[in-house]
Design brief:
Length: 507
C-alpha cells in the first residue's frame, strides 16, 4: 500500500512540477517507448462531482440497490405466478431506481457533474501500470480512462490531449498505443481524426471495434432464449472450464438438468414473458438509460446498426442529436476500421491484434452461438476471420480462403481461418482466453509484442504462433485438443461434489 501511495504521490509531483520543464527542454533517448493504454469498458461513473461526496451511479451504490429490492421482489413474484404485466412494470421500476441516474441526455451528452472520478484522472491515469504484474509497477505505462457512456469520437479528442501530456512528461516523441475492448473504438477514432504520426505501434486487445452481436441483438430488441439449453450449457463450459471442482460441479449440474429438458422448459417460459413485456421494459427504462449512450452504440455491429436505430428510436425527433453522433462514428470510423488501420500501417505504424476464441458468446441472440471470448465475437475482433459455429468445425473439405502468402492460417482445431481477416500475419488467437483474462503469460506476450523491434508477425517467435491456448494463466501453442470436450455426467457430479466437500473439510 505504502509503495502504491508513494508512487501516486511521485506521479502527482511529477505531473504538477515537471511538465513545463520537460515540455520545453528534455528529450529522452532511451529505447523504452512509453505505452498509452486505453482501458476497456466499465470505469466507475459518479454523479454530484461538484460536491465533496460524489455518489457512484455505476456500479450503483448500496442505497440504490436497497431501494430497488422491494420492486425486484414483486417482479420475481409476478414472474413466478405468471403475471407478466406485473413483471414488466416492476422490473422497469427496479432498473430505473438502480441505474436511472446513469442515463445520458437525449442528445448523447453526459448530464452535468457526472462522469469518471477526476482525481483518479490525475493520479491513477498517469502512473499506474497496465500489464505489469502487481508488484512490477513498471515506469512508462500510462492508463487512459474515460467516461464510457460517451462517443468514442469525443473521447478520442481527450485522448489526444492525454497523449501530448505523456509525450511532454516522458520526453518521447513517439508512443505505443494499446487498447482493450471498448478502448479500441477510441483508438480507431483517434487514428481517423488525427492520423498515426507519433504512434510507433498499436496493440489491439480483444477489440470491440466491430461491435458485439450480443449488443446488436439487444439494441434491435431481439432476445432469443427459447430452446437455448444446449447453447447455455456450451457457454458455461466455455467460461467455467474444468479447472476447479466448483466449476466442474456447476457445469455438470446444469448439464444434467439440461439433459432432462428442464433448462429448455425454463428458458421457453421466460421467452414468453419477454415476448409480452420486452417492448415495455425498453420503453420504460432501457431506451432512456442505455439508448442515450453513444459509447454503447459503438458496440452495435455495422450490420445491425440501421435496424437498431429504428427499433430503439422509431422516428422520435427527441433523439436526432444522438443519432448525429452515432451516425458519425458508424460512417467515419466503424465501417472504415480496416482502411484506417491499413493506412496507419502504410504510414509506418506496426499492428498487433489479439483475440480469444473457442468460448461461445452469450447465447441470447437469434443466430447460432459462434466463437468468441464469452463477450465479443472472434470474427468481429479480427476484422473478418472465418469462424465455425462453436460446436462444429470448418468441415473436412474446407480449404484456406486466401493462400497467396503461402502459410497455413487455419487453426489446429479446424475452426478458424485467419486468412480472411484484415491482418492475418499480425493477428493472434487465444483459445479459452476470456475477455477480461490477463493471465501472467498472456501479459508476457503483450509485453513481447510491445517491445518487439518493428512489426512482429505470427512467425516471428516459435513461442507465439498464430493460435495459442490458455489454461490457468499459462499459454502454449494450440494443439487442437479442447479442454471442454470432456463429458458431463452423474459420475463427474458425484466425484466433484466429493472433492469439494473434502477440500472444505480438510482444507
Ligand atoms: Zn525514455
Ligand atoms: Zn500468411
Amino acid at each position: 500500500m505504502k509503495r502504491i501511495l508513494s508512487l501516486i504521490l511521485a506521479a502527482v509531483l511529477a505531473f504538477t512540477f515537471c511538465v513545463p520543464v520537460f515540455a520545453k527542454s528534455k528529450k529522452c533517448r532511451c529505447s523504452m517507448t512509453p505505452v498509452v493504454y486505453i482501458v476497456g469498458f466499465g470505469d466507475a461513473i459518479y454523479k454530484d462531482l461538484d460536491t465533496d461526496e460524489p455518489v457512484s451511479v455505476f456500479p450503483p451504490e448500496g442505497d440504490a440497490i436497497a431501494k430497488a429490492v422491494p420492486d425486484l421482489l414483486v417482479a420475481v413474484g409476478s414472474l413466478l405466478t405468471g403475471n407478466n404485466d406485473g413483471f414488466g412494470k416492476f422490473a422497469s421500476k427496479a432498473v430505473n431506481i438502480m441505474l436511472g441516474s446513469l442515463a445520458c441526455n437525449a442528445d448523447g451528452t453526459a448530464p452535468e457533474n457526472t462522469g469518471i472520478d477526476p482525481m483518479g484522472k490525475l493520479t491513477d491515469t498517469h502512473k499506474m501500470p497496465a500489464f505489469a504484474p502487481e508488484d512490477g509497477m513498471d515506469e512508462g505505462y500510462y492508463k487512459f480512462r474515460y467516461d464510457w457512456r460517451l462517443s468514442p469520437i469525443d473521447n478520442a479528442k481527450l485522448l489526444r490531449e492525454y497523449i501530448s501530456d505523456v509525450k511532454a512528461i516522458t520526453g518521447h516523441s513517439e508512443i505505443v498505443l494499446a487498447a482493450h475492448s471498448q478502448g479500441n473504438t477510441i483508438l480507431t477514432s483517434y487514428l481517423q481524426l488525427y492520423g498515426s504520426k507519433g504512434i510507433e505501434k498499436v496493440i489491439c486487445l480483444s477489440p470491440a471495434y466491430q461491435g458485439l452481436s450480443l449488443i446488436g441483438s439487444l439494441f434491435k430488441k431481439e432476445v432469443s432464449i427459447s430452446h437455448k439449453g444446449d447453447a447455455l450449457e456450451e457457454y458455461l463450459k466455455g467460461i467455467m472450464g474444468f479447472e476447479s471442482a466448483q466449476s466442474q460441479l456447476i457445469v455438470s449440474v446444469v448439464s444434467l438438468i439440461n439433459s432432462y429438458g428442464i433448462v429448455d422448459f425454463a428458458l421457453n417460459y421466460l421467452q414468453k414473458v419477454l415476448d409480452d413485456e420486452l417492448d415495455r421494459v425498453f420503453d420504460e427504462c432501457l431506451i432512456d438509460i442505455f439508448g442515450t449512450m453513444p459509447g454503447l452504440w459503438a458496440f452495435v455491429p455495422p450490420e445491425d446498426y440501421e435496424a437498431a436505430k429504428t427499433a430503439m428510436f422509431g422516428g422520435d425527433k427527441k433523439y436526432d442529436d444522438i443519432i448525429k453522433k452515432t451516425d458519425y462514428y458508424y460512417k467515419k470510423v466503424q465501417t472504415k476500421t480496416t482502411d484506417i488501420l491499413k493506412k496507419a500501417k502504410a504510414n509506418g505504424t506496426d499492428i498487433v491484434i489479439a483475440a480469444g476464441y473457442n468460448i461461445s458468446t452469450i447465447p441470447v441472440t437469434p443466430a447460432q452461438a459462434t466463437h468468441g471470448d464469452y463477450l465479443i465475437d472472434t470474427e468481429n475482433m479480427t476484422l473478418g476471420a472465418t469462424c465455425s459455429t462453436i460446436t462444429g468445425d470448418l468441415g473436412i473439405n474446407y480449404k484456406q480462403a486466401e493462400k497467396s502468402c503461402g502459410h497455413n492460417h487455419i487453426s489446429p482445431e479446424n475452426t478458424i481461418d485467419a486468412s480472411t481477416g484484415a491482418f492475418p500475419e499480425y493477428t493472434w488467437f487465444f483459445s479459452g482466453n476470456g475477455h477480461n483474462d490477463f493471465g501472467e503469460e498472456y501479459c508476457e506476450f503483450i509485453e513481447w509484442a510491445i517491445r518487439y523491434k518493428g512489426q512482429p508477425t505470427v512467425r516471428s517467435s516459435k513461442q507465439y504462433p498464430q493460435f495459442m491456448a490458455e489454461s490457468e494463466g499459462k499459454i502454449n501453442p494450440a494443439t487442437g485438443k479442447s479442454a471442454v470436450d470432456e463429458r458431463c455426467d452423474e459420475e463427474i457430479i458425484i466425484t466433484s461434489a466429493f472433492a469439494l466437500i473434502k477440500e472444505s473439510v480438510f482444507g
